[in-house]
Design goal:
The complex is a heterodimer of chains A (251) and B (506). With 251 residues, chain A is α/β, with parallel strands linked by helices. Chain A has a single domain, classed as 3-Layer(aba) Sandwich (Rossmann fold). Chain A contains 10 helices and 12 strands. In chain A, a hairpin with a 2-residue loop joins β11 and β12. In chain A, α2 packs across α3 and α6 runs parallel beside α7. Chain A is globular. Chain A starts with a strand and ends with a helix. Chain B is built from 12 helices and 23 strands. In chain B, α3 packs antiparallel against α8, α9 packs across α10 and α10 crosses α12. Chain B has a domain of 84 residues. In chain B, a hairpin with a 2-residue loop joins β3 and β4. In chain B, strands 5, 6, 8, 10, 11, 13, 15, 16, 18, 20 and 22 form an 11-stranded mixed beta sheet that branches. A 10-stranded mixed beta sheet of chain B has the order 4-3-7-9-12-14-17-19-21-23. A two-stranded antiparallel sheet of chain B has the order 1-2. Chain B is of the alpha/beta class. Classes of the chains: A alpha/beta (251), B alpha/beta (506). Chains A and B meet through α2, β7, α3, α4 and α5 of A and α1, α9 and α10 of B. Bound molecules: adenosine-5'-triphosphate and magnesium ion (MG). Adenosine-5'-triphosphate (ATP) binds next to α1 of chain A.
């Protein structure tokens, strides 16, 4: 179970608070969506939860199965089961996608005291999962995200997620930049990982994605906190009327 | 390429990263061997030159050659143009000759070598037995390296301890022995070629080397012969206050081919030690030499105490048409590096390549690069330099590309990339280019980048520790050069890259 409790966080370089008391609770197996205007702090929330530098936590906790992630190094949080599909996946020149994946998988296994996968085991699994996402051998060989199209980068994030088998997945606008077919692939990839235990937090601007990945709860975030939560119909409301009405309603 | 193959190859880096994590210490070659040594008196003068020559039981002409060099050296001054700073070296406060007492009577075979010496090489991961695999990569994973033979010449301080696979090589017509043996056993070859690529007058350190060199390796590949195995020399400095002056001479006759690798390590000591080597390569028509270096001399500690001064002159002369040379260097060690492996492209259509990774961490300084001298028609050269600086280190690429008037239709391509880790280190690029005809072309590209926080965080979010992440990113940055090393050594080099960057972040 994943829980964000009264999270307040500021930029390290400026005296500016971005997250202003965020609360969120996702039960095992649930899918929650977060929508909200540009700059409301959605990505910041995902960075603070996963331990990116440049932010200071002023208050609050981020709990994964009861353990406070905020006390851990980023790689420890990953090994504990937190995965973030980046809004802007990063390019790493010269490092083969496959090498990257295997290094990551084995680093986590090692940290958890599990046996590492050898080349043959790894290859078998990665091929299967890549196939489902229509990621071809060439893309696996190429340097991480270098020269990938926007959609390829996002599919690659889902492949990493599938390989790492996390407990909680935060998907930050994984749907933006995808064509209709790619979005279906990504949604199928996510749905295939829904096993009744794994939790998802899907950040999106579009109701469209939520037709494919049906959320249990939709949250609206504005100015650093959740201002409203509801069922899937809330996403439709945003799609039709925008955020203005919702924000006024709260104020 | 099938997916299976490419993935297996790709998987190597991941294995390596794991291997690196298991290497606890920072500089794992820093131990000293406690062994009885015989020294020449400290300092250098004509008597010392005579002494070295007599220890090696050299013919008169060799002594004269040395004395000539020494007399010139006395009139020369140390070059100061490199972007490196170090205290004045007292050349009279160094031992110029040190050999294990057990080597005074030259052992008849490797079996007779002092077990302490054999143990030292074992500890360094260098096989001095004639087994078919290279130590250090056993069980390294996906890539079978069994069946590959690597002949080793082991140089310990001032002497060669032994050379493996000599018989098997001789059967193919290849001569592989220490240079001191070559002077005795193949004087006609040594006389003909020694000093013809790097003349004794070349530069301060090369001249000093010409006077006092004690040992090194000699390779002769006769016409049309492809050397049946990888050759290598492993240089070890062990004695205190001792300089190592080695000399390597490799000759590839018409159509010959050889791949050669040298490795270097030294114990951790608080004093600085001098290593001034000269390497000469002679490449005849259609011949091909691939020369790789993994330089891991002791770099000194975090505060810049101790470490090797590595002042080296290396040059290849492509004498015949279509001769080819490829220098690959992975420079991770030494307190100060001053080194410019060069190519003289004399034959028409001859080719020179230079691939370099230079890593400086803590207080290390490196001023390194290459010279490509295009003399023949349609000569081609390619330079790929990857400089990585961390800590408070300074890293300079210095390169010369010179295309002469007669070298029509020649080409050079230079790519020079610098990667900075942290903000207290420096990277500098000093290219000199001259093209003296209209049909030739020089291309130069240079970039400087930082290991960026976004990349590091991306790796860490996926579960990698900080140093593992840096090692992965840096190995990616240097990939093109690592790939130009022979497979076995590429893996070693990747580990080395990671080890030498330990403590560079956080
Ligand atoms: N490192 C930073 N430096 C300066 N401002 C920052 C930084 N990180 C976040 N911010 C600011 O914090 C606010 C929240 O940004 P964030 O990226 O979390 O928004 P978002 O909800 O993800 O928006 P979008 O929908 O556009 O992706 C913005 O005003 C942004 O400019
Ligand atoms: Mg965002």
């Amino acid at each position: 179970m994943f829980e964000i409790k009264n999270l307040k966080a500021s930029l390290a370089d400026e005296d500016k608070q971005i997250l202003k008391g965020m609360n969120l609770k996702i039960g095992a197996g649930e899918v929650h969506a977060i929508m909200g205007p540009n700059g409301s702090g959605k990505s910041t929330m995902s960075y603070v939860a996963s331990g990116k530098g440049g932010y200071v936590v002023d208050e609050g906790e981020v709990l994964l199965d009861g353990a406070n992630l905020l006390d851990m190094e980023p790689d420890e949080r990953a090994a504990a089961g937190l995965f973030l599909a980046f809004q802007y996946p990063v390019e790493i020149p010269g490092v083969g996608n496959m090498t990257f994946l295997r290094t990551a998988v084995n680093a986590q296994r090692k940290m958890r005291g599990e046996d590492e996968l050898n080349a043959a085991q790894f290859l078998k699994i990665v091929r299967e999962k890549a196939k489902a996402l229509k990621i071809d051998a060439d893309m696996l060989k190429r340097p991480v995200n270098v020269g990938f199209s926007g959609g390829e980068k996002k599919r690659n994030e889902i492949l990493q997620m599938a390989m790492l088998e996390p407990k909680v997945c935060i998907l930050d606008e994984t749907d933006s930049g995808l064509d209709v077919d790619a979005m279906k692939l990504v949604a199928e990839g996510v749905n295939a990982l829904r096993d009744g235990k794994r939790s998802f937090l899907v950040i999106t601007h579009y109701q469209r994605l939520l037709d494919h990945i049906v959320p249990d709860v939709v949250h609206i975030m504005a100015d650093g906190k959740i201002i409203k939560s509801g069922g899937p119909e809330l996403a439709l409301e945003v799609e039709n009327n925008g955020y203005e009405g919702l924000m006024n309603e709260v104020v | 390429m099938s997916t299976q193959e490419s993935i297996a190859k790709d998987g190597v880096d991941a294995e390596t990263v794991d291997a690196v994590k298991t290497v606890g210490e920072k500089y794992k070659y820093g131990f000293a061997t406690d062994i009885e040594m015989e020294y020449a008196p400290k300092g250098v003068n004509e008597d010392i030159v005579r002494l070295i020559s007599s220890k090696n039981e050299e013919p008169e002409w060799m002594l004269e050659w040395r004395l000539d060099a020494f007399r010139r050296w006395e009139k020369m001054t140390e070059p100061k143009w490199a972007m490196v700073n170090y205290p004045e070296i007292d050349f009279q406060d160094i031992y110029y000759y040190a050999r294990p007492k057990s080597m005074i009577e030259k052992p008849k075979s490797l079996d007779d070598v002092d077990p302490k010496l054999l143990e030292t090489y074992k500890k360094l991961g260098i096989p001095l037995s004639e087994q078919a695999i290279l130590a250090g990569v056993e069980g390294a994973g996906d890539t079978p390296v069994e069946g590959r033979k690597v002949a080793v010449d082991a140089v310990f301080d001032s002497v060669s301890v032994g050379t493996t696979f000599k018989k098997e090589l001789a059967a193919a017509g290849v001569i592989f022995c220490s240079i001191s043996e070559a002077i005795k056993d193949h004087p006609e070859l040594v006389k003909k070629y020694l000093g013809t690529v790097v003349p004794p007058t070349d530069n301060y350190y090369a001249t000093l080397n010409s006077a006092v060199f004690s040992d090194g390796s000699f390779v002769y590949i006769p016409e049309g012969v492809k050397c049946p195995m990888e050759l290598s020399t492993y240089f070890r400095i062990n004695a205190e206050n001792t300089g190592q002056f080695e000399r390597t001479l490799i000759i590839a006759e018409k159509g010959a081919q050889v791949s050669y690798l040298e490795g270097c390590t030294a114990p951790m000591r608080d004093e600085n030690q001098l290593h001034a080597a000269v390497v000469e390569l002679i490449i005849q028509e259609d011949a091909d030499i691939k020369y790789s270096t993994v330089q891991n001399w002791y770099p000194g500690d975090e505060n810049g105490v101790g470490g090797i001064y590595n002042f080296v002159t290396k040059r290849a002369d492509c004498r015949g048409d279509r001769a080819k040379v490829m220098w690959t260097q992975v420079e991770t060690g030494s307190a100060v590096t001053w080194k410019y492996p060069s190519c003289i492209l004399r034959g028409d259509d001859s080719q020179g390549e230079f691939y370099s990774i230079a890593i400086t961490n803590n207080m290390q300084q490196a001023d390194t690069g290459t010279k490509m001298i295009h003399l023949g028609k349609r000569t081609k050269s390619r330079i790929v330099s990857k400089g990585i600086s961390a800590g408070k280190a300074q890293n300079t690429y210095r390169g010369l590309v010179s295309i002469h008037p007669k070298a029509v239709n020649s080409r050079n391509y230079t790519q020079c990339d610098s990667l900075l880790i942290g903000d207290k280190c420096g990277a500098h690029t000093v290219p000199y280019m001259e093209c003296r005809n209209n049909s030739s072309r020089i291309e130069h590209e240079a970039t400087t980048s930082k290991v960026d926080d976004e990349q590091l965080f991306y790796c860490r979010q996926r579960g990698m520790g900080e140093e593992e992440a840096v090692a992965l990113i840096v190995n990616g940055f240097a990939k093109e050069v690592l790939q130009s090393l022979p497979m076995e050594f590429a893996m070693e080099a990747q580990k080395l890259v990671a080890i030498s960057l330990e403590g560079s972040v956080g």
